[in-house]
Amino acid sequence: MSFQVLGLNPKILQAVTEAGYTEPTPIQSATIPPIIAGHDLIGIAQTGTGKTAAFTLPMLTKLAAAQAAAGPNRRTRVLILAPTRELVVQIEENIRAYAKHLPLTIATVFGGVGEQPQIRALRSNTDIVVACPGRLLDLLGRRNGDFSGLEFLVLDEADRMLDMGFLPSIRQIVRQLPKQRQTLMFSATLSKEIEALTHEFQRTPKIVQIGRRSNPAETVTQLVYEVPKHLKTALLVHLMKEPAMDMVLVFSRMKHAADRLARQLEQAGIRTATLHSNRSQNQRLRALQDFKAGTVRVLVATDIAARGIDVDGISHVVNYDFPMHVEDYIHRIGRTGRANQIGDAISFVTNEDHGELRALERFIGRGLVRKKAEGFNYTSAAPPYNPAEEERRQPRHQQQRGQRPPRNDQREPRGPQNYSRPSAGPRPPQSGRPQFGSRPQGGRPQSSGAPRPPQREVNGNREGGNERHFPSTAPRPGGFRRRFGLR
Ligand code: AMP
Fold first, then answer.
1. Structure-model confidence comparison of residues 118 and 440, the more confident one
2. pTM of the predicted protein model
3. Which domains does the chain possess?
């Protein structure tokens, strides 16, 4: 099928051709005609399937067809809500490319950066606003922006926004929008919660489902390297000798562990950047730019920070730390093999990860190929105790005394707020002694040098302020779905 038959505006077709797209992806073929026809729509599609263009191209076509009010009566016409700043920036970049021949204005709104430019953009009633819910609600609460003439509302990665506790903010925002509008929702899963959301926000939406959620992109080769925990970094450095590993996204569970790994890779002569929510917005954008430009070969990221990363040509995704949730695995490896490119997903699996690996294999319905790295010494001893390294393992706020703490709106919520979903692993004991009356602490023993059990990050600003809190859950019987936090 060609883009020509989908009814798009000629100026948008021109931009699409200039972007190098020759034919629509399946989700685009399926969503563009009903959106142009004016239907509400729920799109269920994996990440990397071209869903941004799937909702943007038809919306732009309709915006171009309907004359907007000029001058003081001008009002915002499109609101797109997305869970993370990175995703907001990427959506904006895509829209700018697709709308480059149209006289439309676009602005982004998210926390962690100065609010004045965002306030100015909202007050000048920019045509298209792409926003994270928390900051937008904050600015709307102070009477910035006029959404009374809104024509389109898009909720992108709706499932993630629910997981991150944005529902109350989204509800408050939607209350301020006109009822007469077109609402488009995109999600990787069609859960009961998402269905409830469609009833709340949409009118008889068309449902478009592309692929099964549990199928990672077919173009991604998935490999498992079983490795002792203390040799994971050495194995990564060893694998990086392979020139084909030229654009590598490495996933670490913890922010300070990501920094440590980046330092070790740099020491081994591998240019590396990090992406996690302790870094300032500018640092995160810089890291992404350097990675896209090839200035650094490796980007070490945590799950939330990497969500929605749209970088073409990632050759390898490495699960340095095995993900605790099947959904994270699918999201992580979806960063490579995008738009039908070939990519490899490598998972390091230690003795402690075998339970999660088995559950993942059950979920995707097949075993993953085990590989041994040629010429790698799997029997090396653990590195000797190094007090300086132990010092570096401390969280940054404890080591870097005298350094200015991050500003309030850049700080991550602490304590239980960091758990946005049930954690499959046990919580760390509060002290060295067992707690009376607490749940039995199953799972791995925690030695002082061992990394803490995984905490799920939330967006590093006030976006996380309205999170749902789930009780801590020690591993319970009930099958892998529950263990992986799947509904
Ligand atoms: P998305 O799922 O929106 O994050 O898109 C994934 C990637 O696919 C992005 O890099 C897009 O630029 C690219 N893409 C989107 N639509 C097409 C298309 N029709 N042909 C080729 N690449 C596309």
1. 118
2. 0.56
3. 3-209 (3.40.50.300), 220-380 (3.40.50.300)
